[in-house]
Every structure is written in C-alpha cells, then in structure tokens.
Design a protein that fits this description.
Blueprint lengths: L8 H9 L3 H8 L2 H19 L6 H7 L1 H32 L2 H27 L7 H33 L10 H20 L6 H23 L9
Helix pairs in contact: 3-5, 3-9, 5-6, 6-7, 7-8, 8-9
Length: 232
C-alpha cells in the first residue's frame, strides 16, 4: 500500500498558486490591456443598472423596495469610480505628458465631486425623505456636487483629447478618442456652464452614456498598444 506524499513546502506553494491563477493571468497582461479591462468594468457596471435609477418622487412613494434599488444603483456607481480612475491611470502611464497629468487631475477632482453627489442621493436622501426641508436641501447639495463633477470631467476629456491627438499620427486610432474627448468634453462643460444641461435622472443617463462612448474609444486605443511615445 502506497503512503501519501508528505505535504512539504513545495506542495504548499503549489496549492497556494492555484487560487492566484486569475491574479497571475491579469498581472501578466500588458499594462495597457490591464487599464482597458479596468475601464470596461468601470463603465459597463453603472451603464447596466442606470435604467433602474429612481427619481426623488419614486423614493418618497415607493417604499423599502425602491430605497433598496436606490442603494444598489448608487453603490455600484460609487464602486465603479476608483476602477475607472485606475484605468485612466494606466492611460496616463502610456501617454506621460503634462497635459495628460492635468487631464488625470481634473478627472480625479470630478470623481471626488460625484462621490459626494452619489452618497447624498443614494444614502442620505432616503433617510430624510419624511422631512421635506432636509430632503430639499439634500437635493440642492446633490445637484451642486453633480454640476461640479460634470464640468470637471468635461474639462478633463478636453485635456485628454489634447494629450492623445499628437500620438495619433496620420490617421492613427488615437485620433478617435482624442476628437471625441474634445467634442464630448465641450458638450458637458458648456452644458453645465450655460445651464442647458439639466442633471435630472435623464440628464445623468445622457452624461453617463457620453462618458461611456469616450471610455470605450479609449479602451480600443489601449488594446491597440497605447502610446508609441512612451519613454523606455
């Protein structure tokens, strides 16, 4: 009768490597591909549930079920923000320019503002729904933070467009996210500054879709290898 092999250090190392196989596979990807995966996760998760976003009136009339949905919608949006930032950090590493640095800083500023807006709308408003005065004040704060966020992200997209345009070359794919960044960024920033972009639930869906279009173009750029002008 054969005796089982002793569980020596080598066996334990092999066992530990099995759960980390997904992590190893992810880390073995090129830096640009890891950034693209992060951006895809960060943009698709909120888009998939954005249609479930309840309005303020729904919260006051819908009861516990809609409050739970409201928590999930805003919770996913909150969780997606650092994932998107990680992806954009990967984009910055592939570009490495002063303009790209400014674009990343503006986007980070916009994320801070949208985190505040999402917390107010998703987790504060349902708790003060019985108090009309507090609910109205919460709504005003939510709108203020949301406007700051959209304006900052709009400025960021314009800067990203300026950073990506030079590396596109003649007819390079990078020209697509570059041009889209300038156009979409201008629409968002000017929409807030002029007041014609209203950040109701419908307006937030439009903003999310426009950002999603730009991020998907950036994903395409990263999957093609990112910048050719990287320093060694």
């Amino acid at each position: 009768m054969e005796r089982p092999l002793p569980r020596g250090p080598c066996n334990l190392v092999q066992e530990r490597r099995v759960p980390s196989s997904v992590h190893s596979l992810f880390m073995s990807m090129p830096q640009e591909r890891r950034a693209a995966v992060a951006l895809l996760i960060g943009v698709l998760a909120p888009l998939l549930i954005m249609g479930m976003h309840p309005t303020g009136g729904d919260i006051t009339r819908g009861g516990a079920r809609l409050v739970t949905i409201n928590h999930w919608v805003h919770g996913v949006s909150l969780a997606a923000q650092p994932v998107v930032f990680l992806g954009l950090l990967g984009l910055w590493r592939s570009v490495r320019s002063d303009v790209a640095t400014a674009a990343l800083v503006f986007y980070g500023f916009g994320i801070v503002a949208i985190l505040s807006a999402a917390v107010l709308s998703g987790f504060v408003a349902p708790d003060v729904v019985a108090d009309r005065l507090l609910l109205g004040y919460t709504g005003m704060l939510n709108q203020a933070f949301a406007k700051v966020s959209v304006a900052a992200i709009g400025a960021s997209l314009i800067l990203w467009g300026a950073a990506l345009w030079p590396i596109g070359g003649r007819g390079g794919f990078a020209r697509l996210p570059a041009a889209a960044g300038v156009i979409i960024g201008a629409v968002l920033a000017l929409g807030i500054l002029t007041g014609w972009l209203s950040l109701t639930v419908r307006g937030i869906v439009i903003v999310t879709l426009l950002q999603g279009i730009w991020i998907l173009l950036v994903v395409g750029h990263l999957l093609r290898g990112g910048s050719v002008g990287r320093t060694p």
